[in-house]
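Q: What structure does this chain adopt?
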Amino acid sequence: MDTEHILIAGGGLAGATAAKTLRSEGFQGRITVVCAENEQPYLRPPLSKEFLLGKAGEDTVPVLAAGWYGRTTSNSSLARRSRLPILPPTRCICDQEPGFRSASS
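A:
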């Protein structure tokens, strides 16, 4: 059983792409993408320039398909409403939800 855990801070294009790349390159450990929003990561320019103007559908906005985080493996997740910094000495991140999340060494 793989015990590696990668914690990605930020749910924008870079964070979602990092998670997708890790999986496509064969990483089998746990991945947690931490973001401050209640939605899955979405493409900001298409949202502001196309979707809100009625030129694109809602399905064009997410970076990854709906359900990707739970579907790719059972150990991919999206943590929401997290805004506090990573604490380097302990390799943990504080979360507004109860508890801490930690990354492997």
